[in-house]
Amino acid sequence: MDSALRRIVIVGGGTAGWMTAAALSRFLAPGTDITLIESDEIGTVGVGEATIPAIRVFNDALGIDEAEFVAATGATFKLGIEFRNWGREGETYHHAFGLLGRGLGLLPFHHYWCRAEALGLAKPLGHYALNKVVAEGNRFAHVTRADDSPLPPLPYAFHFDAGLYAAFLRRFAEARGVTRIEGKLAGAERNGETGDITAVMFGDGRRVEGDLFVDCSGFRGFLIEGELAAGYDDWSHWLPCDRAIAVPSSSTAPLVPYTRATARTAGWQWRIPLQHRTGNGHVFCSSFTSEDEACALLLATLDSEQLADPRTLRFTTGKRRRAFVGNVVAIGLSSGFIEPLESTSIHLIQTGVNRVLDLLSSGPVTDAARDEYNRRFDFEMERLRDFIVLHYHANQREGLPFWDEVRAMPIPDSLKRRIALFEDNGAILRDGDELFDIPGWSQVMIGQNLRPRHAHPIAAQVSEAGLTQFLGSLERAYVADAARLPHHAAYLRNFAPMTNNGARS
After folding, report:
1. What is the 3-state composition of the chain as percent helix, strand, coil, each rounded to the nearest 5?
2. 324, 225: one domain
3. pTM, full prediction
4. Which member of 65, 262, 385, 434 has the lowest number of beta carbons within 10 Å of its beta carbon?
């Protein structure tokens, strides 16, 4: 690497800053100077306690020991998300990680399930998702399958304390030479010819020079917006929730291995179980309920003792028009925000870091690299947006003004096409390398009562007796497999219990 990219400055700490610092310090060539600037005065948002399975790829790539990580962050295991009241009041479904049933020939499983349901032969879809069956029994273990096993894998993610995770990664990064500077930035210096950032400045006159700047400054976008005016695509007409109130409560039993998302009057409430506490929050639209009302509802529905004062976050859902401008790349909340309904906040940090590593060269940042970064960023955010909009649009909570409005609102054409294809004959086609695959889309669509009008002609060729035997064998195998696993809390106590100082006992 020549002098063009020897100095990397990360503006902002928290989960985004320290994930970036940890990855760059692990994978870039020795001699790369990495500095992270953060201010204890400003603090961090601290959301994103629930994750998706890709976080394991990130931790494994860094060489992090999973048991050490789990103990240090108060982590629990996560097999999926339980959605309450998102279709009709009183209904529950799971978006479980992993495979859904088992395909036959050319078609994914959901085609056969839809035909069987129409014939009155199927139980609810979750009976045929191993992760859901295991989660419902509050069980978990690391599962290794033989190559010829008829049973699917048991993919998992984590719930963890985001503040403890950032501290864990800080120790990792500083041990690999990352320099942390405490202080509040006041401005930046620009190259008069290119417009690139040459240095950031503190209020006391200190300055830090760099070749590449990573903006992890949160919603304010200190560099990407404050200095470079990247612009922002506002998606609040599709995702109108604009507030979140978060509050921790004490831990409860049983320690469930899944996130819970419960639809409320003008938004939804999350519940995230950690070893040492429970994370709770209420995401809502301020046009339909006040902050006081939203806070009162959240506190009234906690299932354990409140541990701290509620904290309110205000946001506008959307994304930067360009996440990479000049020599500044925005990662985390500075690049945009999509509410945490599907636990993707930390994943978006991870993919941003991955793109930086993919596109960095030993020379200066090129237009081609910036353009490709922004193209991939736009694609990822737009497909994720559509998946979240689906949850709101496909509700049947009639008579509630917020839910009536989001059900009737115009939706992106890309989502409209996807719903139309599914409602025709159950077709779900993955778009490129988008995050959520066929099992995810099918569980949400079916869980919220979308159904195809016609059975796919290939699925229609299976006899009723064949469908009954096929579904019954899957259900029996999954129930038996789940019964062999220990309870989640017991497994954690043996694997990596958290201690008071966040170290393994």
Report:
1. 40, 20, 40
2. yes
3. 0.96
4. 65
User: For the residues of 58-76, what is the DSSP string, one character each?
Assistant: HHHHHT--HHHHHHHHT-E
The amino acid present at 357, given as its one-letter code, is L
Query: Which pLDDT tens digit goes with each residue over 253-294?
Result: 999 999 999 999 999 999 999 999 999 999 999 999 999 999
Could you list the residue range(s) of the whole structural domain that residue 135 is in? 93-149+383-483
CB-based burial, 423-443: b 16+ in 10 Å, e otherwise: eebbbbeeeeebbbebbbbbb
* Residue 501, domain member (yes or no): no
Please give the structure tokens belonging to residue 130: 């191993």
Residues 228 and 332 in one domain: yes
- Domain end among 270, 286, 314: 314
Residue 228 shares a structural domain with residue 330: yes
The conformational region for residue 43 under phi > 0 = left, psi -120 to 50 = alpha, else beta, is: left
Active site residue 132: no
Token pair recorded at residue 449: 């009562």
| Intra-chain end-to-end CA distance of the chain, in Å | 42
Handedness of CA 267, 46, 433, 78 (dihedral sign): negative
**Nearest CA-CA partner of 339 in 453, 244, 413:** 244
Based on the domain organization, do 285 and 412 belong to the same domain? no
> What token pair was written down for 341?
């309904």
Q: Which of 297, 314, 331 is the C-terminal boundary of a domain?
A: 314
Name the amino acid, one letter, at 67. Answer: A
392 and 476 co-located in one domain? yes
User: Where are the extended beta strands (E) located within 139-286?
Assistant: 157-159, 179-182, 185-190, 197-202, 207-209, 212-215, 232-234, 243-249, 259-264, 267-273, 278-284
Same domain, yes or no, for 253 and 376?
no
The helix/strand count (H/E) of the chain reads as 14, 21
pLDDT in tens, 165-187: 999 999 999 999 999 999 999 99
